[in-house]
From TrEMBL:
PROSITE patterns: CYTC. Residues 1-19 form the signal peptide. This is C-type cytochrome. Keywords: Heme, Iron, Metal-binding, Signal. It comes from Albidovulum sediminis. It comes from the Bacteria.
């Protein structure tokens, strides 16, 4: 199964299967609600409840594609979320890098499941799911 591994696929499937069909949300939508809404707001407009406690303004992430010549900047958004690059508005220390938290969570969960070697792949899948969800918020 390559780099993703069976354990990572099972982990992702179990994340999505935990919600009832009526209340189902994508993994990316779950990650956004859990990690991003507090600052970026439910629609990604930069109006989350924690914004008043921050210095500067929060970026409107619904404009990423428009501000990049109509092409959604997948790698830049991935690297911002993962913490592997400091770029643009997400280059400040106020933007937490979720990649480290995702890797720690994955390592703990997969160790419990008996598949500790797949933590990086599972963390990357979570970041990719979040990137995909942020892409769905883009205004034309």
């Amino acid at each position: 199964m390559g780099r993703l591994g069976f354990a990572a696929m099972v982990a992702l499937a179990s994340l999505g299967a935990s919600a009832s069909a009526q209340d189902a949300m994508s993994i990316g939508q779950f990650e956004f609600a859990n990690s991003c809404v507090q600052c970026h707001g439910p629609a990604g407009k930069g109006d989350g409840p924690l914004v008043s406690f921050m210095t500067g303004s929060m970026p409107d992430i619904t404009q990423l594609q428009k501000n990049n010549g109509g092409i959604f900047p997948v790698a830049r958004v991935f690297n911002s979320i993962d913490g592997s690059a400091k770029v643009g508005a997400h280059g400040t220390s106020e933007m937490p890098a979720w990649g480290q938290r995702y890797r720690a969570d994955a390592a703990e969960w997969l160790s419990y499941q008996g598949a500790p070697g797949e933590a990086e792949a599972l963390a990357q899948l979570r970041v990719l799911a979040l990137v995909e969800y942020v892409s769905s918020l883009q205004e034309q």
